[in-house]
Amino acid sequence: MAFTAKDVKALREKTGVGMMECKKALVEADGDMDKAIEYLRERGLAAAQKKASRIAAEGVVLPYFDNETKKGVVVEVNSETDFVAKNEKFMGFVEGVAKTILATDPADVEALKEEKFNGTDRTVTETLNDLVLSIGENMKIRRFERMEGIVSTYIHAGGSVGVMVGFDVADEAKASDPEFIAMGKNIAMQIAAMNPEYLSKADISDEELAKMKSITVDSALNKADSLPIPILSGLIKEAIESKKWSDDDSNIYNGLDNKQRKNFTNFISKEAFEALAAIAVSHKAEIVDNKIFSGLVQGRLSKQIKEVCLLEQDFVRGDLFQGSVQGYVDSVAKALGTDIKVNGYIRMMKGEGLEKREENFAEEIAKQING
Fold this sequence. Notes:
By secondary structure, this protein is α+β, with helices and mostly antiparallel strands. The protein is built from 16 helices and 6 strands. The protein has helices at 5-15, 19-28, 33-51, 88-104, 109-113, 124-135, 178-194, 206-222, 229-241, 247-254, 258-261, 270-282, 284-288, 291-308, 325-336, 361-370; strands at 60-66, 71-79, 139-148, 150-156, 161-169, 340-349. Strands 1-2-3 form a 3-stranded antiparallel sheet, with helices on one face. Strands 4-5-6 form a 3-stranded antiparallel sheet. A hairpin with a 4-residue loop joins strand 1 and strand 2 (71-79).
């Protein structure tokens, strides 16, 4: 059966596959459009299987929110190269995946793959296979997380980081106020930039808090020069009197004036510093009970909590507000005359934790030249 250029164009519009692949499919199908479509689908599956082992750690993270249903999702879809993230077909697929998730509410990625892709009778897997054939790269839907209610979103650097943050607002009508919208975006940008581990201190478990404290104590003991002076002086005295320091290190230290002793680690040997840390660790129990040391540990712990908890972090837009993120939210709430509470957030970074592809352009060019 003969076919024309219009048939090739029609097949391309139906499948999204390139012109040359469509022409080849029509040749194989002897001009039969349905058989050509089936041929392309089989080719897509074969291509996906062939490329499945190739590293896909680029791509995009997309936060998507449906204003009508008040439901949102952050989804990560990976590809082999970052060029694909700029491809309209790829981005259309990612948005379609987000819409499919909101419409079908799948339990996980595996369940999502079996759902009908948004607006089609094809599954998500079949649609993805078609895209692999069309674009020529391995692609994978890696993960997604959902959120409902009043949310703000932010996409950083074309999808390298995606954020969705949720709010409880006493007067929900205030959520459409420009000041609230700006505040929501600023909080989402804060999350993207500062990557908090927790929403607030209340979200840190007692077990995790104890672990943080233990690490802080051990870190302080192993860096003895940062210990309070009364404790440090006792440790140095013991190091000298018990001959844990060499005569050279002892003589060097004793020869320092008060100003130099503040930076004594610049003068003593590495071995002397390590010996001092060992002495500190051996006296761990009594040092931990020391009130001065307890104050030091609590101060460092408070600083860590301030760094890892969103609401305790310093608000990065100092030009807008000086203080914590919580303080900024409270100031906007006061201006709008309502109560606002940050109830959660999602932050995804593209390719986080994945093995990265190592490019060798000389090899790539050689492969292309040699076919």
